[in-house]
Amino acid sequence: MKTAGSINLRSMIPVAEFKQFTEQQPALKVLKPWWDVLAEYLTVAMLMIGVFGCTLQVTQDKIICLPSHEPQENSSEAPCQQLLPRGVSEQMGGLREVRGLKNNLDLQQYSFINQLCYETALHWYAKYFPYLVVIHTLIFMVCTSFWFKFPGTSSKIEHFISILGKCFDSPWTTRALSEVSGENNKGPTTGRATVAVAATAGPGKAGEGEKEKVLAEPEKVVTEPPAVTLLDKKEGEQAKALFEKVKKFRVHVEEGDILYTMYIRQTVLKVCKFLAILVYNLVYVEKISFLVACRVETSEVTGYASFCCNHTKAHLFSKLAFCYISFVCVYGLTCLYTLYWLFHRPLKEYSFRSVREETGMGDIPDVKNDFAFMLHLIDQYDSLYSKRFAVFLSEVSESRLKQLNLNHEWTPEKLRQKLQRNARGRLELALCMLPGLPDTVFELSELEALRLEAICDITFPPGLSQLVHLQELSLLHSPARLPFSSQIFLRDRLKVIRVKCEELREVPLWVFGLRGLEELHLEGLFPPELARAATLESLRELKQLKVLSLRSNASKVPASVTDVAGHLQRLSLHNDGARLLALNSLKKLAVLRELELVACGLERIPHAIFSLGALQELDLKDNHLRSIEEILSFQHCRKLVTLRLWHNQIAYVPEHVRKLRSLEQLYLSHNKLETLPSQLGMCSGLRLLDVSHNGLRSLPPELGLLQNLQHLALSYNALEALPDELFFCRKLRTLLLDYNHLSQLSPQVGALRALSRLELKGNRLEGLPEELGNCGGLKKAGLLVEDTLYEGLPAEVREKMEEE
């Protein structure tokens, strides 16, 4: 019998209301292995059973009861007992035989009895079976999808799915795998085979038309297939951003195992739930019966106390119960298999070994914890996802992409705009702080000098052979690898190389094999344990080396310097203040012409220097020299023409400086000199004398004997007057007198006809002598003096100086 209430309830349980429990983002299907998919279909089937039973419950009569006419003496027997062992047909026949019995009950009494017997006589399992099915199924659904909803896990899953989809669809993934496919079709090419081909083709053709790919081992070289689609700039930038996202995501997810733990917990919960459902359903399923005896004390109301009731949906519910139990058993088996899969293999570790072997990208790292677990789930869906995702874990793949983006950004035309002439007059390209070296650099065949600064992990491709005019290379904090074919090309061509790094052991070994090298400039520190030994790679191969510059913290001159003693002409050692103790190796440099020992912590002039008979220039800048009594020994260096003793703590110059008659340039600036010896005037060959930044108060008149003097720097001293004899130096071209205590300038300055530069700023001058007009070479641009003093000169003198 249908009622208005049952009709309203019908609209309360539509199937559509349960869609929210099963609906999930389509992208999440990649994290559902086959057993989760099967379990999802099983839950849908079980939910349909429950919804169907609930619908029947609220839309049809639940139970129909008739009063029992048994005699009072048989009242101890249950009503309907005589009908229970018989078949339905017999029952119906029996009912036809007792036709005509009147119960004297109206409709309201029947409804009352039906409701009362339904609540009191019907077993709770038969009564609530469809509702239990719905509830249990919903719990299964929640357990299955809980890790997709829980905040601590859903954010990681959604982020992973987002990145995975972008990696799968990225054009760079297709390009990278296509390159590998082309490489595998052509067969593996080892480093030795490449070297052999390069050596046969000659240095000029080594590597032309091919692109070197460094994979698992640095020696492995493969060629790029020609038919690979190019990425545009936007796609390249998107792929670059993906690499960064994958790196950050990997670091974040590998820190914990919350996803793995949550999946295990919800699986264990489903197994426990399955066992509980299975046990109590098997126990209570027999409680669903077609006939139900009902004994209630309603005789005062209805005249009857015993009723025989028919559970109208018992037959259908019993069949649905057995179907439900079957589905639950299958569901439980999938859960048990899930537990077996979770515990019989290490799911917190994931190896890309097969992907590395298939793709040849040997640097793809293995992953762990939640990252590994998600990749294991992905493999259950489709292993192609992890293969394509692995492309973005490879540093080699990332370097290829960076190279491609660099080539897009740095076109040959843009690079040519940066070409400039360096101090040596060579056409130079300087690149700084780039993620790599653009291949387009090697299209500039006119390039003569290449300067690379703060560029990491440079690998010169075979295209280097196109730079046929390259003579100078600078690698400043830019570690570089050079294939053997390129070494052959540069071995005799490169003349100058500069390498700057944190430690000298980072200097590439191929640098010491460039036998055509003429200048080698190295800058870096020896490790503390090696600073005393100061071991440097052998220089025997550098047969043409003329200039060696070493800026480090060595305690002695490296022994390998003697390898080039027969042809080294210039040696520069800059020690950044570290004390240089042993210099005996210098004695073997027989042809050395220039020697710089800068910031080496020297307190005396090393005796080893006096053995250098070919020495022409000596620079001892920025040391701790206080006395230079050894200057007498420089007479053995008969070719010495330049002596730089500046930036020290020298308090006086010894008298035997007169022995240095061949000396042409003497630098004594930035010391603590207060006087100069008169014997300095006997250095007749002196052309340049720099004693600026000292404490000189007067000058010896004997300076006038320096008839070859052309440059005299006396700036930043305490001179109050100049000796008139100074103006006998007729060849003087530059006279620097700024920032002293001069009160007047002698009119004899007019005798310096060759004077072209005169600096007088920062003195106490009240005027300038008009004899300055006799200095024919002195122009306004060469006269540095206060404007008021200049304006005080006669007009004709100023006009003469201002003439072009």
Automatic annotation (TrEMBL):
It is a multi-pass membrane protein. It catalyses: chloride(in) = chloride(out); 2',3'-cGAMP(out) = 2',3'-cGAMP(in); iodide(out) = iodide(in); taurine(out) = taurine(in). The chain crosses the membrane at residues 38-58, 128-148, 321-343. Coiled coil: none annotated. It is found in: Cell membrane; Endoplasmic reticulum membrane; Lysosome membrane. Belongs to the LRRC8 family. This is Volume-regulated anion channel subunit LRRC8E. It comes from Equus caballus. The gene is LRRC8E.
